[in-house]
Amino acid sequence: MPANLPPPDAVARVRRFNRAITRAVGALNTSFLDRGRPLGAARVLNAIGQGRSDLGEIRAYLGLDSGLMSRLLRGLEAEGLVATAADAQDSRRRVVHLTPAGAAEFAEYERLSDAQAAGILATHPDPGALLAAMDLIGSALGRDRITLEVCDPRSPEALRCLQAYYAELAARLPHSFDVSLSCDPQAEAMMAPRGAFLVAMSDGLPLGCVGLKGTDAGYAEIKRLWVAPAARGLGLARRLMDGAEAAAQGLGIALLRLDTNSALPEAIALYRATGWTEIARFNDDPYPDVFFEKRLAQA
Amino acid sequence: MPANLPPPDAVARVRRFNRAITRAVGALNTSFLDRGRPLGAARVLNAIGQGRSDLGEIRAYLGLDSGLMSRLLRGLEAEGLVATAADAQDSRRRVVHLTPAGAAEFAEYERLSDAQAAGILATHPDPGALLAAMDLIGSALGRDRITLEVCDPRSPEALRCLQAYYAELAARLPHSFDVSLSCDPQAEAMMAPRGAFLVAMSDGLPLGCVGLKGTDAGYAEIKRLWVAPAARGLGLARRLMDGAEAAAQGLGIALLRLDTNSALPEAIALYRATGWTEIARFNDDPYPDVFFEKRLAQA
DNA sequence: TATTTTACCTGACTTATGTCAGATGAACTC
DNA sequence: GAGTTCATCTGACATAAGTCAGGTAAAATA
């Protein structure tokens, strides 16, 4: 990809964007205050509502001092929104959960956030373009917060990726693409202990995936490598492949294979650059026309 | 324009964007704190550095209480960064300006901001796409902060707009477009008292323009109506036209005319929707092929 | 000229947030 | 089982930010 030179007013435009979002974030935050709770307490309630229960984890996530965390939590307890208990395994740790009243309050914050988001979309003439721009910027700003997670290939996050993957294949391959023809995986082959399915998550949004599919033929296959358009160029495909290889090593797999199509040159370039060697066709699948193999060092 | 239905995960994507920018704004703000001054004081210093000198104006701009403002100012004075004096006309008011030390400190904040902006651009594989996305979002979030300003048509803001306008005409008109052929305006005809040139500004970025060009033939012409691609659909063209008509009324002009090209259907639709009537060709310009007129109520 | 309004200042508060030095009790290590 | 490490809590303190009730002097108004 050629390095596009930024235009001369580039810095001014980024700074104008910064001013606009600073103002927008201020508005977002003050709207939370309308529920009569300081922002810190609202953030803790939100973290618990998202399913975080370990106190230390919440503290790390929000970047709070232990004393401050303790006080905020006591405040929420006094309001009757959360309840804490000692961890069953390690009674130094505390676990927190929402009471029914807390769950209702959390739902109210969620409703507020959803309404705000919908409001931004509703006033714009082209929500699709706005969303694409938001995805692009969200990925750029949050690139070092993208995490790889092991998922069930039937989970909603995985399905979102796979759907986009199939749609893109259909658009890019010369003949129309029908997933049922393509040696469709049993989900179990892409789950421990036979394989794995990794999804790259950025703040709850799935941005890419890769499948490691165990076979009975002495090797595992890499399948369904995909990166969202908004996140391309950030090195995510490589991270996903590294993650898949690490998962394979963890499962004691020594040999990987994959098939791909010559209509996907970026993927092929990546494979060549990361130690894969082209081999002869190893299956009868009609769509792939290029085949690779990589031998892994034993863990 | 068809109303694009947003995809089902639209709200989740907006909220993910919100989380990403909230985090980015936090990082931006904490970096300002590295200069050892609380955010409030830094914001006041910044407002003064931007050229605001009237104390009340700064207070309104930053949304500060008068007591708080006063205290922040005393702090900056104690640091030797600003100096205040009574206003010459109305000695209840105070005017503030930077001392040399204050100017140096302000420049340092500017350098920090520029470096941050450049840093965001530098790490992205496609700065052009990132900037386009930022412009789009900046315009969407700041749409109610877009102001119309009367400018000299030779000012840098005006020239940025005109350059983009000519580039777009060249791209959209079937024959190549040469500005020298097109009855190029004397700047004076687009300035008071003969006419006006309006620029739509959003946080320092020009997003659109329109010229009101006086003639000696008993009417004024609307020229060079342009809106930046990132700001289209927000009703800006209409605001610019309204502004131009108001300026005409202020100058005692009773009749407006304009010429345009059938390759610009959005513009023509706007004219038809806002009280313009199509008339016969009234000049020999080679590019326009559609002509309009509008009679104004006297102010 | 007397009264009211305006722009700013001052002092006394409150709240949110953050920091730090122990205290407590549980878990781990030798 | 004694010492150490760890997670959390508590109290004391600091700072940033905001609010509010007067106070002062100049300007506007009657």
UniProtKB/TrEMBL annotation, chains A, B:
PROSITE patterns per record: GNAT
UniProt keyword Nuclease present: no
Entry GO MF terms: acyltransferase activity, transferring groups other than amino-acyl groups; DNA-binding transcription factor activity
Source domain of life: Bacteria
Pfam families the record matches: Acetyltransf_1, MarR_2
Keyword terms: Acyltransferase, Transferase
Domain named N-acetyltransferase: residues: 157-297
InterPro entries: Acyl_CoA_acyltransferase, Bact_Acetyltransf, GNAT_dom, HTH_MarR-typ, WH-like_DNA-bd_sf, WH_DNA-bd_sf
Coiled coil (residue ranges): none
PANTHER family, per the entry: AMINOALKYLPHOSPHONATE N-ACETYLTRANSFERASE-RELATED (PTHR43877:SF2), AMINOALKYLPHOSPHONATE N-ACETYLTRANSFERASE-RELATED-RELATED (PTHR43877)
Name of the protein: GNAT family N-acetyltransferase
Organism in which the protein naturally occurs: Paenirhodobacter hankyongi
